[in-house]
TrEMBL record:
<dbReference type="InterPro" id="IPR036964">
    <property type="entry name" value="RASGEF_cat_dom_sf"/>
</dbReference>
<keyword id="KW-0344">Guanine-nucleotide releasing factor</keyword>
<dbReference type="GO" id="GO:0007265">
    <property type="term" value="P:Ras protein signal transduction"/>
</dbReference>
<dbReference type="InterPro" id="IPR023578">
    <property type="entry name" value="Ras_GEF_dom_sf"/>
</dbReference>
<dbReference type="Pfam" id="PF00617">
    <property type="entry name" value="RasGEF"/>
</dbReference>
<dbReference type="InterPro" id="IPR001895">
    <property type="entry name" value="RASGEF_cat_dom"/>
</dbReference>
<protein>
    <submittedName>
        <fullName>Rap guanine nucleotide exchange factor like 1</fullName>
    </submittedName>
</protein>
<dbReference type="InterPro" id="IPR008937">
    <property type="entry name" value="Ras-like_GEF"/>
</dbReference>
<dbReference type="GO" id="GO:0005886">
    <property type="term" value="C:plasma membrane"/>
</dbReference>
<dbReference type="InterPro" id="IPR029071">
    <property type="entry name" value="Ubiquitin-like_domsf"/>
</dbReference>
<dbReference type="GO" id="GO:0005085">
    <property type="term" value="F:guanyl-nucleotide exchange factor activity"/>
</dbReference>
<feature type="domain" description="Ras-GEF">
    <location>
        <begin position="154"/>
        <end position="375"/>
    </location>
</feature>
<feature type="region of interest" description="Disordered">
    <location>
        <begin position="82"/>
        <end position="101"/>
    </location>
</feature>
């Protein structure tokens, strides 16, 4: 029928005009409803799919460069999408060995990069045309066994430096970061940078413990290092630094470390028994009952095992509805507030004693993880 025939301009104008029309509508929609899209992830799913399809074809339509650049800037700010292969212009930031899909375009107006480094990785800034030339650094390809700082340092110094360093990280976390991390997840990433840095640090210490042991050559030397690491864990517990304590114990429980049968057999009986107690303390059975009982007897200042706080908050958030019959579930909010208040209590007194004994600088704490096995 005549009424259903497309206008002549659509038949004649190939895809360029249609692309420009779609871009205009999408740009207007993103600018108008960016607040809604940032708050409700489901609302932006279709828009994000359309955005990705457009960005995939950018190389075919150079005439639309200005519109596509504006769309890319809005897409990163509103939808939180990474820079893709078709991302226009600008320097790119990437980790060594990271797939192309995880690169990010740094816009001229941006002054910093909202990302964290993974274990044994680096950040590189480069132009888009030089991205393919990036290769892993020599020290990232192969780690060479050898003596590192841990072999020369005293257990007390290592433990006190870890406590001082982790206290500085823990002290910088705003209480609301715990709520944002649980309620908003990836969308709250920019608001939880300090919290994510501490979580990453916990993983780094676990990795560091296992790596140091596995790179140590010689049975006697490895057994001595294992004994030293157990001592460090004991001093961290005495310092009430439960984050470092947990990280070291988890690192020693790594499957690769557990298989060092001869090393464990050479460990003195006193330290074997001590490590069994540590395993019991970190046992997750009955919702970490043993750890919670020990933590309840501690007085501030102390550094808790932060991942468990996030687990509790996640359980409170997902286990009950925020709205009941159209009304706010005040009881749920009270429970979450009470859990967050415990963080304030842990930090209610300054960590002066261990800072004085261990050197008290975050830089020194980080340096102890140095050498060829630095995370």
């Amino acid at each position: 029928m005549e009424g259903t025939c497309p206008p002549a301009r659509w038949e004649e104008g190939s895809g360029l005009r249609r692309k420009r029309a779609v871009l205009a509508v999408l740009l207007h929609f993103l600018e108008t409803y960016k607040g809604l899209l940032q708050e409700e992830e489901s609302a932006g799913k279709v828009i994000k799919e359309l955005y990705l399809l457009i960005m995939k074809d950018t190389s075919l339509y150079h005439e639309l460069e200005d519109e596509i650049l504006k769309l890319h800037q809005l897409g990163q700010g509103v939808l939180g999408v990474p820079g893709g292969q078709g991302s226009p212009g600008g320097p790119e930031v990437t980790g060594s060995g990271v797939p192309r899909e995880e690169k990010a375009v740094l816009q001229p107006s941006e002054e910093c990069v909202f990302t964290t480094l993974g274990i044994n990785s680096h950040l590189f800034a480069c132009t888009r045309d030089t991205f393919d030339s990036l290769v892993p650094l020599p020290e990232e390809i192969q780690v060479v066994p050898g003596d590192t700082e841990i072999h020369r340092a005293e257990p007390e110094d290592v433990a006190n430096h870890l406590t001082a360093f982790h206290w500085e990280l823990f002290r910088c976390i705003h209480e609301l970061e715990f709520v944002d991390y649980v309620f908003h997840g990836e969308r709250g990433r920019r608001e939880t940078a300090n919290l994510e840095l501490l979580l990453q640090r916990c993983s780094e210490v676990q990795h560091w413990v296992g790596t140091e042991l596995l790179l140590c050559e010689g049975l006697g030397k490895r057994a001595h290092l294992l004994k030293k690491l157990i001592k460090i864990a004991a001093i961290c517990k005495q310092n009430q630094d439960m984050l470092s304590f947990y990280a070291i114990v988890i690192g020693l429980n790594n499957a690769a470390v557990s298989r060092l049968r001869l090393t464990w057999e050479k460990l003195p009986g006193k330290f074997k028994n001590l490590f069994r107690k540590f395993e019991n303390l970190t046992d997750p059975c009955r919702n970490h009952k043993t750890y919670r009982e020990v933590l309840a007897k501690m007085k501030p200042p102390l550094i808790p095992f932060v991942p468990l706080i996030l687990k509790d908050l996640t359980f409170l958030h997902e286990g009950s509805k925020t709205l009941l019959d159209g009304l706010v579930n005040v009881e749920k909010l009270h429970c979450i507030a009470e859990k967050v208040r415990t963080v304030r209590k842990y930090r209610s007194r300054p960590l002066c004693e261990w800072g004085a004994r261990g050197g008290g600088t975050a830089g020194a704490g980080g340096a102890l993880l140095g050498g060829p096995t630095q995370p």
